[in-house]
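User: Before I run my own analysis I want an independent prediction to cross-check against. Here's the chain; please return only the structure tokens and, at the end, one sentence I can use as a sanity check.
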Amino acid sequence: MRRTLTLIAATLTGAMGLALSPAGAAFASTPTTPPTTTPGSAPASPSTSPNVVDGNCYSAYVCYYYESNYQGSHEGVQGDDPDLLNPPVYFQYPGAGQGTYVANNAGSGFNGYPNCYATVYYSAYYTGTSITLSPYGQAGYASPTLGPVNNNDRSQYVC
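Assistant: Structure tokens:
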């Protein structure tokens, strides 16, 4: 019975573009193209868009990637966060950088909020150099390097 369920799960996850982790839990694999729309937003531009890989980095989160160009481990952070180190936020998804702090280690990212701007700051408590990402689906919602806060991101403010 267990073998049959495993085969069914493997078949379904493969058909849905998912992969099975060693523990058997399904997680989304990186699609070959970014999504074209999000409810309430304009189509994304493939030349400047990250690959959306899971629900935690889709809508109502700012998604950070460990490496530039939306590569490596990633993690979504919801809402305002005055200090990504207190409590610490970690890159949790498979890839380079998994298990490290998001603070001061993000190489790229995008704003998954369809109706809000997201500003990422160099320092805690919304201070220092920053980059503002447009609402999801609009020009400027993603940054392949996070510009002036590349690997120096410490807080985020949304809306």
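Sanity check: The chain is about 10% helix and 25% strand.
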